[in-house]
Amino acid sequence: MTRKKVNLEYITNESKRKATYKKRKSCLLKKANEISTLCGIQACAIVYSHDEPNPEVWPSHFEVQRVLHKFETLPKLEKDKKMLDQETFLKKRINKAREQLIKQRNENMKKKMDLLMFKCLSTGTIVDNNIDVNCFSWVIDETLKEVECKRTRDQSQGGIHVAENGSRTLSEEKELVDAMLKQDWLMDSVHSVGNEMLHF
């Protein structure tokens, strides 16, 4: 069963926060012990709590001081190379989420334009006048490139047409694009719509 993703935010409920702290601290120290034993590395942990006057250290005060001293004697460039505080971590998470959002929006737009393009081909008319003309033209150009690449690859493989996961075969795509090329109305209509949109 997939574990529910934890929201990284402050737990306002005090009893729940204390229980989470106790559980997470135990897991943290256990993981530190595991990585130190399994990989033969020097590691230490210092955990502060609002409810305890002194921090909890692992594996011992002496070992913590020894590891920290070794770290402090490293050149600054070496020390900073892989350091990561919570602010930097959250910024990386936010940037990654933004990139995923942009990628998903682009994929959704392409699927929308793909569907619109084939509706136009099947009906013989522009079915939506409120389209992004530049995006629509780009999708048409990309489709032509994809078909040409598939045709070249297919010819090099002996002319075998294969469709995977219910996708269109090369012959089906070629028929659609040939229809597009033979009927200049599609591109003319797209540019016509664009010109009308540009005249206020």
Automatic annotation (TrEMBL):
Matches recorded under PROSITE patterns: MADS_BOX_2
Subcellular localization, as worded in the UniProt entry: Nucleus
Listed GO MF terms: DNA-binding transcription factor activity, RNA polymerase II-specific; protein dimerization activity; RNA polymerase II cis-regulatory region sequence-specific DNA binding
Keyword terms: DNA-binding, Nucleus, Transcription, Transcription regulation
Gene Ontology terms describing biological process: positive regulation of transcription by RNA polymerase II
Gene Ontology CC annotation, any one: nucleus
Organism: Lupinus albus (White lupine)
SUPFAM superfamilies, per database record: SRF-like
Keyword Nucleus: yes
Lineage: superkingdom: Eukaryota
Protein name: Putative transcription factor MADS-type1 family
